[in-house]
Amino acid sequence: MVNLTKTMKKISDNIFALFLCAAALSLSGCTIGEVITRESAKEAQSYIVLSPNHICIYLGETRQIDAAEAEGWSYDFEYESENPKVATVDATGKVTAVSEGETKITVTDIDGELVPAQCEVTVLYDYNVILSMEFTSKKYTAKIGDEFTIGLSTKPAGAARNKICWSSTNNLVATVDQSGLITAIDEGQTTISAVAIDGGGAPAATCLVTVEGSGSSEPGLSIDKCNSVDGWTTGNGSITLDTQNYRSGIGSLSITSTGHYLLFNKKFSSPINASAYASGGKILVTLYVSDASKVPADAAGQLEFTSSGTCDNQELCWSFGELGLKTGWNDLELPISSGHTTGGEIDLSRINYIRMYYNNPGHNIPSGVVLKLDRIRIIK
Are 249 and 187 contacting, i.e. CB atoms less than 8 angstroms apart? Predict the structure, then answer.
């Protein structure tokens, strides 16, 4: 037998459910049997959903904002930063932090159909990353033998200094260690650079350092500063003083091939006593080559020092092939112990002759090849 009471209750429940469904559709602007379309979403003024809707990033970082219409319909969106000085945003929604502060990214659809949305952006400093830095002085003058540091300001001010790499463009003039301590070695100019290696992308800071004659004892022994052509001779062409391209002092000695060999000679009227450097000494030579490809390793050529006043006698020498020359300036360090002898041992207590020559056996030196000589000294 049918339970009339339960049957009537089920009918009542179903009628109530249909009533609720009709009411919901009525509020959304749809009627029973309608499908929600993009047009109906437009009429109902649908909205944009952002992911994320708040971003907190450090300077230099980027984040992506993803935008979508609430019902999932396809729209094209435009992005605009309220304050581009704090953070910028590109056409794809990629946000880039520019400076500390807060801003909002407004997202709209290009058709203007949807309620715009905003993403709040907060930009913070990462105090472990250097964003910018500069020396407190762009130029600095020191004396030979000075040890000093140059003030370096960073942004943020408390950024870790152990993430800075220091370098000098000319270690024959001044060196710098990885704590930023600079040591003036010889007269001339060099550029000291500080480069952040923490990934922050800060441009390098540079300072031009000029080293002048010492007020105290000069380290090492100067053989010739190559600041004058006096006493220097050549067998082909002429030697000039180049005051534009040099590494130390006021210029460099320069010779240009006219299609033959290249030669520097100098005989000293007063011998130079370098006996104190016999053990552990190194001869430093700064040499410029305009095109190293035209100075082959097997070419005849030597750098020679003698105590006989002439070549090939009491001579200490190195061949060009041993020097590993490259195009541009070469800072050569030649251990005295590695040199070859010709015509007997050199007397280091009376060095009185230097010769440097380059000749390509069986061929003339191409015209226009340039050699420059700058600063010759001995150190330990």
Answer: yes
Query: pLDDT tens digits for 7-44?
Result: 444 444 444 444 444 444 444 444 433 444 555 545 55
Give the chain's end-to-end CA distance (angstroms, integer).
119
Structure token digits, residue 356? 């440097």
DSSP class per residue in 1-63: ---HHHHHHHHHHHHHHHHHHHHHHHHTT--TT----HHHHHHTT-BEEEESSEEEEETT-EE
Could you check whether the bond before residue 219 is cis, i.e. omega within 30 degrees of 0?
no
Task: Find the largest Cα–Cα distance for the chain.
Answer: 139
| CA distances in angstroms from 256 to 51, 79, 184, 241, 369, listed in the order given | 68, 62, 32, 12, 6
Phi, psi dihedrals of residue 105, rounded to the nearest 5°: -105, 120
Tokens of 209: 């350092």
Going by the DSSP 8-state scheme, the letter that residue 324 receives in this structure is -
- Is pLDDT above 90 for 366? no
Per residue in 137-164, pLDDT tens? 899 998 888 889 998 988 777 666 667 8
The SS3 of residue 361 is: coil
Encode 109-132: b = buried (16+ Cβ within 10 Å), e = exposed. Answer: beeebbeebebebebebbeebbbb
C-alpha radius of gyration, the chain, whole number: 39
CB neighbour list of residue 68: distance below 8 Å, 6 or more residues apart = 48, 49, 51, 75
Encode pLDDT of 35-45 as tens digits: 445 555 455 56
Q: How many CB atoms lie under 10 A from the CB of residue 303?
A: 25
Smallest CA-to-CA distance from 291 within 233, 216, 371, 345 is with 371
